[in-house]
Specification:
Blueprint: E1 3-11, H1 15-26, E2 32-34, H2 66-79, E3 83-85, E4 89-93, E5 99-103, E6 108-116, E7 120-122, H3 128-135, E8 140-141, H4 144-147, E9 157-161, H5 165-174, E10 180-184, H6 194-201, E11 206-209, E12 212-218, E13 225-230, E14 236-240, E15 243-246, E16 250-252, E17 284-286, H7 298-317, E18 325-327
Parallel strand pairs: 1-2, 1-6, 2-3, 6-17, 8-15, 9-10, 9-15, 10-11
Antiparallel strand pairs: 1-18, 4-5, 5-6, 7-16, 12-13, 13-14
């Protein structure tokens, strides 16, 4: 098994990872990005790879496709000398220094500093029709703030699936654009906080389908409706709509860490100091959605990527950094 020594290893390939790479490479830290491999749940580039139109990323007055934005960010990082490896980091050892990372290709990488920017994946219903329309921009989304203002969703009946605070926030946000918002929930009461639930129930543009589950998403190129099943009687019926927003939570991509970084109860990486990206292990930094369960936006992820690279640079300046290169 080969072993390579690196100065800075960046794990991930979303806005946080590429921004960190731009800053680290311009600081002559010779970073390498492990962008990951394509899987059913994730692709290199993260959740933006499933977004057809981005209208809220600064600097692009016209809508930009998520794939285009990620390709541009990657190209910018590569322009400054970032190296890219299309493998996963499958295991880490942060017990000593330099850190040891194991790749899906069987290599062992030692690193003086590590930036974890692996993001979080949206929890989906698991329907093939849902996945198809989400991947092709067919009106299925996991982020109302990202997509709700798009022209395709304006003055439409929009469906939100979920019963927690996230679903309440999504539904309330969508009332700015929708003709009606319908929340579909499997039970007869929300698990959201009382203040959020009351706010939703009092909004005249929102109604709730209680004891209902989405069992299919209708439409070929773009959603035309959802099929609902009554969770008590088992009866099914179709509900016409012009958009579906799945708000049943996100799962941060932290399993590969093997518990070696302190995590919050919801699985996101803890950054003990406010407005910092330092983690529980000195020399390891976290950026983007893997440490942010609140904002979850491309621009905020990019901001924390900048912060992580600057912190890594300053941390390395106070420690002996071995020269990069192969080790026998």
């Amino acid at each position: 098994m080969s072993k390579t020594r690196e100065t800075v290893v960046i794990i991930g390939s979303g806005p946080a990872a590429w921004t960190a790479a731009v800053y680290a490479s311009r600081a002559n830290l010779d970073p390498v990005v492990y962008e990951g491999e394509i899987s059913r749940e994730m692709v290199p580039g993260g959740q933006l790879m499933f977004t057809t139109d981005i209208e809220n990323f600064p600097g692009f007055p016209e809508a930009l496709g998520g794939t285009d934005l990620m390709e541009r960010m990657k190209a910018q990082a590569v322009r400054f000398g970032t190296r890219v490896v299309s493998e996963n980091i499958e295991a880490v050892d942060f017990s000593g220094h330099p850190f040891v990372l194991t790749t899906s290709g069987g290599a062992r990488i030692t690193a003086s500093a590590v930036i974890v920017a692996t993001g979080a994946r949206a929890n989906w219903l698991g329907l093939s029709s849902e996945e198809r329309l989400a991947r092709t921009g067919g009106g299925v989304s996991s982020c109302a703030v990202c997509d709700g203002a798009l022209p395709a969703f304006r003055n439409q009946r929009l469906v939100v699936v979920g019963g927690g605070d996230s679903a309440m926030e999504e539904a309330l946000y969508l009332t700015k654009f929708a003709s009606e918002v319908v929340i579909v929930h499997r039970r007869d009461s929300f698990r959201a906080s009382k203040v959020m639930a009351d706010r939703v129930l009092q909004d005249p543009k929102i109604r709730v389908e209680w004891n209902a589950a989405v069992t299919d998403v209708l439409g070929d190129d773009f959603i035309t409706g959802v099929r609902l099943q009554d969770t008590l009687s088992g009866e099914s019926r179709d509900l016409e709509c012009g958009g579906l927003f799945v708000a049943i939570g996100h799962t941060p991509n932290t399993a590969f860490l093997g518990g070696q970084l302190a995590l919050h109860e919801n699985g996101y990486i803890q950054t003990p100091e406010a407005w910092r990206t330092t983690t529980s292990v000195p020399g390891v930094f976290a950026a983007g959605d893997v440490m942010d369960s609140y904002y979850r936006q491309a621009v905020t992820a990019a901001g924390t990527g900048c912060m992580a690279a600057l912190e890594a640079e300053r941390w390395l300046a106070h420690h002996a950094v071995p020269a990069a290169g192969a080790i026998a």
